[in-house]
Amino acid sequence: xxxxxxxxxxxxxxxxxxxxxxxxxxxxxxxxxxxxxxxxxxxxxxxxxxxxxxxxxxxxxxxxxxxxxxxxxxxxxxxxxxxxxxxxxxxxxxxxxxxxxx
Length: 102
Prior knowledge:
The protein is mainly beta and 102 residues long. The protein has strands at 2-3, 17-24, 41-47, 50-56, 65-78, 87-101. It has a single domain (2-101), classed as CATH 2.40.50.140. The chain is built from no helices and six strands.
């Protein structure tokens, strides 16, 4: 498993298990989302200067720092701009396990 730092580009780890530390965000940015039946909970993880969408089996209640372990996935979607066919992609994490770091 790879511990991602603020300098790492998450897209370089698509399909791989990674560890990311951060805090559950209270102010989500605009993101593509694609929840699944197995991981229906959508959360936003602030990690350094980045915000990453994470999917979990259940709601994560950590109030301080959190350490997540999961697989990087790629989500794609079309622009909402009328007449645009531009495709956007974003890398996110399907969380297998986590621990609260107090």
